[in-house]
Amino acid sequence: MPVHSYKDLIVWQKSVELAVMIYDLVERFPKEEIYGLVSQMKRSAVSIPSNIAEGRYRATRNDYAHFLRISFSSGAELETQIEIAKRLPKTKHLPYEKIDALLEEIMKMLNTMTGRIGSKN
């Protein structure tokens, strides 16, 4: 199936799903984290699909690969923030398994895409 829009990309669809899951998760965080970890996690999660979309409509393959790398970096940020949340007393008990699995899948997809796009230049 040809890709006409970033919305056709499975990695974009999965990363939007991940962002929604993060928003749901952080609703359970203590209120004192609203300007700390909650804000950071939301920004990182939203950055992943946003940069995929922006890169898809850039003029060159190099630009596209660059924005995929930014998405990948945002995923690494989110992984770190989740790890911190897992170690905090008030958030360590939350269910992270599905989020971890989906984020890992997205990171693998982004890594593969970046390699393929970058190698064609």
From TrEMBL:
Domain of life: Bacteria
SUPFAM superfamilies, sorted: IVS-encoded protein-like (SSF158446)
Classification via CDD domains: 23S_rRNA_IVP_like (cd16377)
Protein name: Four helix bundle protein
